[in-house]
Amino acid sequence: MDRLSGGGFQALRALLDGPFAGLFGGMHLLPFYYPIDGSDAGFDPIDHTQPDPRLGSWSDLRELARGKDLMADLIVNHMSSRSPQFEDFRKNGDASRYADLFLTYGHVFPKGATEADLLQIYRIRPSLPFTAMKYDDGIERLLWTTFTSAQIDINVSSDSGRSYLVQILKQFREAGVRAIRLDAAGFAIKKAGTRCFMIQETFEFISGLTAQAHALDIEVLVEMHGQYEDQIQLARRVDWVYDFALPPLVLHALYAQDAAPLKKWLTMSPRNAVTVLDTHDGIGVIDAGGLLSSAQIGSIVETIHRRSNDESRQASGEAASNLDVSQVNCTFYDALGRQDAEYRIARSLQFFSPGVPQVYYVGLLGGTNDMDLLRRTKEGRDINRHHYTAQEVDLEVQRPAVRALFELIRFRNAHPAFAGDFRLLPCMNHQIAIEWRDKEHWARLSVDLKARSSAIDASPGVRS
Questions:
Q1: Which of 7, 149, 266, 299 suits 427 as a labelling partner, its CA being 20 to 30 A distant?
Q2: Own/partner long-range contacts of 214-218 (Cβ < 8 Å, ≥24 apart)
Q3: What CA–CA distance (Å, rounded) separates 41 from 33?
């Protein structure tokens, strides 16, 4: 939020009432908790129940939410090593009131672990997810740290863990938060002898937390990268899931002029999806596994690098300080070589796919790779996390690609056909035709990948 508005909640409200007026019925605020500038850009909260005062107060947040659906992150997997709870645990050890809040190696493997046990743990970084820390009593313990050593995993099955999450949910309800995104929920449950990722107990945990949120009139979106079958299974248990398979499938369609895998996915994709092309993280590629071959996924990665003049290569994999080596760090506009025609096609496909479209702030402004920020921070994901000034926003909204996206957003918001039924129309594999229909209202997208052209037709009243 501070990277777009140059300020806090009030500055963002001014954007929504000004240059972005009429575009959004809701907003997802990335972590705004204290502090927003920790080791992982707010995803390592010291205090998950307080906004960073540099952004404003809970009252400011309630005002921002006025008339709009507000989504906030519930970071279920971990908290900061600088949190008062962990500092108390490090000081007092097993005598701490928070001793059961944090997950240790010994808690999951009380009898130790075999080499096979450790190697089957699903991890997003090359090293094992443990950090050795010395406590004030001089004893060294192994803490479970899925992401970084500054993010200590929570034992969500403990009394303290459950109480901690419920406390945050209640604070959200008071602040007018209508929906939560469960961040890193796939890693929340660790069990010896398993991958410790999206196991049966994980689904049960998500279902239970969803029920608690529903009791407070809060909807749940789960953030989880993985095979598309997991997303389909997960969609049956929660209100919303991300369509993370969509971005690589759209890129494959544009790069290879082949819409067949995308069409196949659209026939089975969850209808309760939040569709995205870009997010605050990289462009995921594993999410299309099973829909695309390994060779096709590899070709997507290499084409992103080539189209971005190798800027994405400098920000991805082991080239930068990346948490997830299965994602390519690049703006979506640069992944398409800054081709306005292809960017319009990509966004049109997103907005005509089943689900509710979400547009990341950099993508909203057709942002390009921020190599200066990448060089300063050496954090790969910062290539797609530009800090916009108010003056930059005023300039960017005048660009043709951005104006076209704004028109597309308003069209999707206004046309009644999107309240009806989705269907794919027959066409060649280098083409894709999508229609939405609700009684007499209809909207149709036609794309020719070889010609790099697209057209939207609609029933009377709204036309693009």
A1: 299
A2: 216/169, 216/170, 216/172, 216/173, 217/173, 217/178, 218/169, 218/172, 218/173, 218/177, 218/178, 218/179, 218/180
A3: 10
DSSP one-letter code for 320: S
> In 231-348, which ranges are E strands?
240-243, 273-275, 283-284, 327-328
Q: What is the per-residue pLDDT across 20-74, written as a single tens digit (0 to 9) for each?
A: 999 999 999 999 999 998 888 889 999 999 999 999 999 999 999 888 999 999 9
**CATH number of the domain residue 51 falls in:** 3.20.20.80
Range of the domain at 81: 25-224
What 3-state DSSP class applies to 339? coil
CA distances 202 to 181, 195, 289, 372, Å, are 16, 11, 21, 39
CA atoms in the 13 A half-sphere facing the CB of 110: 1
Q: Kindly state whether residue 241 falls inside one of the protein's structural domains.
A: no
DSSP state of 83: S
**Residue 420 domain-assigned (yes or no):** no
| Cα–Cα distance measured from residue 234 to residue 202, given in angstroms and rounded to the nearest whole number | 10
| Residues classed as catalytic | 183, 223
Per-chain mean pLDDT for the chain: 94
pLDDT for res 172: 96
The answer as to whether 395 is a domain residue is: no
Per-residue pLDDT band for 87 (boundaries 50, 70, 90) equals: very high
Which stretches of 365-446 are DSSP H helices?
371-377, 390-396, 400-414
pLDDT score of 297 more than 60 = yes
Total domain count, the chain: 1
Instruction: Point out the least confidently predicted range of 60-69, 102-111, 213-222.
Output: 60-69
Length of the chain, in residues: 464
